[in-house]
Amino acid sequence: MVTVSLCMIVRDEEQVLARCLDSVADLVDEIVIVDTGSVDSTKEIASKYTKRIYDFEWIDDFAAARNTSFSYATMEYVMWLDADDYLKDRDRDKLRELKRTLSDEVDSVVMAYHLLFDGYGNAIAMSRRNRIVKRSRQFRWYNAVHEYLLVDGNYYLSDIAVSHGRVHTHTTRNLDILERKLERDGELFGRDMLYYANELSDAGKFREATEHYVRFLDTEADYFEDSLMACARLAACYHEMKNEDLKLKTLLHSMAYDVPRADFCCSIGQCFADKEQFDKAIYWFKLALTQENPPHHFGVLNLICWTWFPHFQLCICYGMTGELELAHAHNEKALAYLPRDENLLRNKALLEAALASGDGGKGV
């Protein structure tokens, strides 16, 4: 059985830290906590789980703090979590089994990262992370904001998911860090430019954000997933700015970087549905249903676009074109994912009543 160090950086996490550590403390062999300046009871809570608590003077650099936390690890492998992350019971069981069976030839274990959940507890947004890495490889973190762990070698794509349960609201912390970097360096490049655009967008500065997204897409990105993210976020900015033509063009441009993906297909379909061009909308929602969830994708995936959402939209589109049997069929498929959803149950009742009365339907 391999041994694992859990390494975390924290600051003012008294609301969530115990939840995180309770979910994983008995599964790891040591816990390292690096505190970057807490003024609440974070360190007191951490002390109930480990004596290995270290202070780190904050220097506007998340990668530096992560690398410091990794430097204190002593076990064969290093796992990282944020304080508002946790493992559900099924994932705890899988992690326990992974420790028992993991080959020492594996350099990195990739896990799903479930970011958002619906009212039924289903993950609706996810990405993937290199979550456990071999300490002897001395992998490093990069980027002051939205830091990433650069790995190579043999990786294992696991089915374990880390769940994210944020309680803090969005702050300007990351935006402030990047603006200070911009002022200091005169220009932002690569991922810094992309994440600066993201922070501007999150702050509601959509026009400024679009300028940086366009600049980013005009450069050659190191990772195609970053270009896909830029397309998705830029399209969302154009939507906020009521520029639906540029929104559609940006979504279509995503296919310069990868094959059609279900989330982009759904967004394109929605553009046509909003224009009441239902035949075109139907084409794109049906195309979404043919796309496989990309197993090696590390960007954020809107999971509903691979499950019930295209069926729901096809129900609406077929309903608008009078093809009620097709609308009913797709509503039933959406219900298979969300059997208690009130909107879908209401659709079911209305469609079945209309079909029973002979009000419409062109056949499946």
UniProtKB/TrEMBL annotation:
Domain of life according to the entry: Bacteria
Keyword Membrane: no
Name the record gives this protein: Glycosyltransferase
Taxon lineage: Bacteria, Bacillati, Bacillota, Bacilli, Bacillales
InterPro entries xref list: Glyco_trans_2-like, Nucleotide-diphossugar_trans, TPR-like_helical_dom_sf
Keywords on record: Glycosyltransferase, Transferase
Gene3D superfamilies registered for this protein in UniProt: Spore Coat Polysaccharide Biosynthesis Protein SpsA, Chain A, Tetratricopeptide repeat domain
Originating organism: Cohnella soli
Location of the Glycosyltransferase 2-like domain: 5-142
